[in-house]
Design brief:
This protein is an alpha/beta fold and about 250 residues long. Helix content is about 45%, strand content about 15%.
Amino acid sequence: MNFRTLRVLTYFGGFLLTTTPARMRLRRLAKTDPQEAARISHTYITRAVNRIFDLSGSTLTVKGLENLPDGACLYAGNHLSYFDIVVIEKVLPEEKKAGFIAKDSLKKIPGLSGWMELIRCIFLDRTNAKEGLKSIFKAADYLKEGSNMFIFPEGTRGKPGEMKEFKPASLKMAQKAKVPVVPVAITGTSAMLEDNPGFSMKPSHVTITFAEPFDLCALPRPEQKNAVGQVQQIVEDCISEALAEA
């Protein structure tokens, strides 16, 4: 662990501790107005991730924000790093923030899990098919209510140039809610941490590309089953373009 990593961890721990009273107030608000609680929560989290990104020393290029649709959508992106969520939260406009489909182990982290629940994240148990289906239905309900959601269809972090196959059921919530899918390509985040030995953080240049919305509900029913492959191809093409421009 280097000094840069220590600074980020110290800041993050301080954020979770000092914002406990605000988190408790927002949890009470969420019982009557969950969307307003989510909106306010995003303002706290965005300030935090902006500071974390600044401490990392990294730089950022964002492309395709003009492609974000007016209504609710499901973002579907490749997954490289713990910093993927940090950067996505940083770059999305206020009205297009999203809750994340996250692994259920994050629910065990005090403070962090509370903030995640407030922004309408859903913790997915990948070992229990029945519970996983319930999570998809819950995410579809959030989408129908107007909340945006973000999923990493690979299901786990991959390595640069080694994208795992997108899981077939990953877009099911968009199909059920009848909302478009926005493919998202992420490059450079693993170089901030995961590619470095000893949990050492280093500056990187990160590129986030939002592709044009993909309306899988407009496809003939037989083709909807293969839509996940089309979305993955769009993400791969955007990654290739970003790497070629780097």
